[in-house]
Amino acid sequence: MEEFIAHPDVHPLPGFGRCQVVACDRDRCSPSHGHCHMHRVKWTKRSCKGPADLDHFNRTEPPTAEEGSASLRGLAPLVIAQFLYGLQQRAAQGTKTKYWSIRQLADVLRRHEVGSLTQPLDIKTHSIATNLLTRLQDACFLALRSPETEALKDTWDLRVFGHGGTLDFTAISQSWLREAAKRWASDRLPTSRNKQVYGNLQTQLKAVALLSESLRAHRADSGQAPAALSRADIEHHLHRLVWLEEQEEISAYGRYTAVHVLKFVLTRMRTLGLGRPGGPLENLPDDVALTRRDVPELTRDKEIGRNLPPEVLRALCDALPLLDDMETAPGVRVAVELLIDTGRRPDEICQLPWDCLERDPDGKHVLIYNNSKSNREQRRLPIADATAAVIVRQQQTVRARFPHAELSTLKLLPSRVRNPHGTRGIASATVGATHRKWVDALPPFMVTTAVATGGRAVPETVEFDKKRIFPYAYRHSYAQRNADAGVPIDVLRELMDHESFETTRWYYRKPRELHQTGEHPQVARSGRRLRRLCEAWILAA
Fewer CB within 10 Å, N side or C side of the chain? Predict the structure, then answer.
């Protein structure tokens, strides 16, 4: 063999050239046939069935599948660039993409001779490939958008502005009011500190949509001429909201929100100068506005009184082990326990860092969290030893799941999807969905309430509405049980991290002496006082 290889007359023979199938990288099997062996067999079977287009076969036939690989050969150059860009964005988000889904989608795109992922596509394929195609298209569409182009549309993708969700202005039929709403939203988006900006803006936009609906309902011109409007149109809108409440189409709190928010939005629109010449509110009279007297009074029970009765809260705590059996996302039970014990907002619990537990100078446990609503970071909340034990166990679980990750980047409740390094917290929507499923599966909650009969209050046992049991209700319950236990308002304000005393005052049913006594109790979910808090510690925090 060595002599044969070394012989000067021995040299390799020339190949027969590449297979004519564009996506194939193999050589032809013979000089008389233009395909590799595999595609030669396929073409023979195809041509035996009837007339076939050889050129179309060469352009659209997929390459021979190989284990562990996917080929984009044969796709249009633009599609290849879009494909790679979309995969890059998925990888940056921590999303895994299987090679067989790439292969399936590439074969479908090649067979349909797609020229761009951004063009309308009417193709059917396996659900995995369809999902990948949707994600790649979404990444490509998002790359071509900008805040300037998005602001011209009637439906905004808030990811373009650095947030999530969409804003839909189509419910506002008056062109001048819709344009003013867009200008107002453009001003609000850069200054919104809350991560849940979509929900807040959608609520405020709904108040404007209700005004648009009122103008459409009672004006002959449907409110299209702003100069023809007057204070009477505002009064008609207020009367219509009362009627909607009586018809139970909106709640008392919904009516309050609709008026309160609309007053804020209209005032802000004028502050932005939208009433100047050339602005959308140029011809709108000054009396088309809401005053403080127009906002309906809201009793405490209708607004803040969403706390859970003690017997309901006890039943929920007893049923916490059932969350382990039905939990679809790891960490939901821990999230619910922390919501009950600490009274923090759902998003604040879901985004807790791994190292959120510290001790104060007295050696007591303190929870370190970020106030997502007011954008105040590194807030300190004293917690019970039992709550700290829940956090320590969760820390151990997370550390075992991500043994090599930096502790400073880990989340206490990491998401299960798109999270290879543990840097993304579980979504509050995931906690809410699992929590709702858990509550609905529990037996009915029976509570004792006072019913007025014959001029006196008679106790009666009734079933508690499960719709009132949602994650944010634990925050109200935390505040209410501390207020009922006699915690002074200044201390409760610090515990709740409220900006104003007026917000905290809602939790005090009866007038009481609000003073500082030097030391104040904090109350657990069971109603037991946890420990005494020093006034100096509160002020330092």
Answer: N
